[in-house]
Amino acid sequence: MKAVRFHETGGAEVLRYEDAEVPVPGAGQVRIRVAGSAYNPADGGIRGGFLPIPVTLPHVPGYDVSGTIDALGDGVDGLTVGENVVGFIPMAADGSAAQYVVAPADMLVKAPTRIPLADAAGLPSVGLTASQALFEGGELKAGQRVLINGAGGPVGGYAVQLAKRAGAYVIATASPRSSDIVKAAGADEIVDHTATALLDAVTEPVDVLLNLAPITPDGFTALVARVRDGGVVVSTTPRVPTPGDEERNVRAVTIFVHPDADVLSHLVALIDTGDLHVEITRRVPLSELPTIHQQADAGEIHGKVVAVPPRV
Fold first, then answer.
1. If we measure between CA atoms, which residue out of 87, 154, 84, 153 comes closest to residue 115?
2. 117 with 272: CB under 8 angstroms?
3. Could you give the angle at the alpha carbon of 71 between the alpha carbons of 65 and 76, nearest 5°?
C-alpha cells in the first residue's frame, strides 16, 4: 500500500510517500480502507518530536480517519465488513495517512451519510474537543453566555455550532478571514481580534470562557475578569496554564481530548440531521501531505485539510 511515513523526527522534509506493508488487524481491531485522513497540528508536533507522544519509527501520522471496514480482527462485534466508519484513533499507533489503517473497533462509529465519506475525517478529534470543552469542562447550559476565543479555527467552528445549538449566547473572536464562517456557524457577536482589544469589546460577564487560541499568560489572566463569579475558564492550549479565580469561585479546566464513541455518534447524528456542518478547506491527494506539513509549519494552513489516498 501507499503511505506517508517518517523514519526520523524533524521538519516536513522527513516525510516520505512510499510503499508500506498492509497492516493486519489484531484482536478487537478492524482494518479500514482509508477514504480520508485529516491533518491536525499535533501531527506536526509528533513528527517534529516535540510532543510527548511515543511512536515507533517508521511512523504513519494521522489520528482522524474515515473509510470502509475491510477486515475484522478476533472478537469484534457490532461492526461489519463494508461498513463506512469514522474515528479518532490512537495517536501513538500508525495512523490514517495510508491506504489502510488498523484501529480499535470501540473507537469507531458509523460515518455520516449526509456528507462525502472523505470529508467525515474532518470531524472526530476537533468535534470531540469542542464538545468536551463546552459540556464536560464548561458544563455549558441553555441561557448562559460563552466567550470563544479562537473561534475561526476548526475546533472553534464546531464549538460555536454546538454552543448555539445548546441555547447559549455566543460571543466569538475571529479574524476578517474567518468571520463569515463564524457568523454562519451561529455566533451572536463576533469580535475582530485583529482590530479590537477583547477586554474592550466584551464588557458584560460571561459564564464560560473557552480559549482555543495562542495567548500570553498575562493576556489569559486578564480575561478572567470577564467571567462571572462561579463561572469557568476552559482551555485547549496546555502550554499556557489555565487561570481561574479562587476568591470568586471561577474554575480553571484544561481539556485533553479523549476518544468517546457515544459523543462521536451524537455528533454524526447531528450532521445527518443538518444540525452540524463540517467545513473542509482543502482536499489533497495523500501524496501531497508532506507539502501540507510544510505549509502548516510556515503558518500557511487555515481550516481543515483532508488527504485522500489513491483508490485501491
1. 84
2. no
3. 90
Report the residue count for the chain. Answer: 312
Angle of helix 41-48 versus helix 289-297 axis, rounded to 10: 90
What whole-number distance in Å separates Cα of residue 17 and Cα of residue 15? 7
Q: What is the pLDDT of residues 171-191, one digit of tens each?
A: 999 988 889 999 999 999 999
Pairing state of beta strands 2-6 and 305-308?
Answer: unpaired
With contact defined as beta carbons under 8 Å apart, do 299 and 49 qualify?
Answer: no
CB 182 within 8 A of CB 151: yes
CA 20 from chain center: how many Å?
Answer: 27
pLDDT in tens, 47-105: 999 998 999 999 999 999 999 999 999 999 999 999 999 999 999 999 999 999 999 99
**What are residue 42's phi and psi, to 5 degrees?**
-65, -25
Count of beta carbons in the 10 Å neighbourhood of residue 258: 12
Strands 84-88, 108-110: pairing kind = antiparallel
Tell me the pTM: 0.96
Q: Which residues, including other chains, have CB under 8 Å from residue 286's CB and lie 6 or more apart?
A: 2, 4, 17, 37, 97, 98, 99, 307, 308, 309, 310
Residues in contact with 180: Cβ distance below 8 Å, sequence separation at least 6, in sequence order:
none
Separation of alpha carbons 60 and 38, rounded Å: 13
Give the 3-state secondary structure of residue 189. Answer: strand
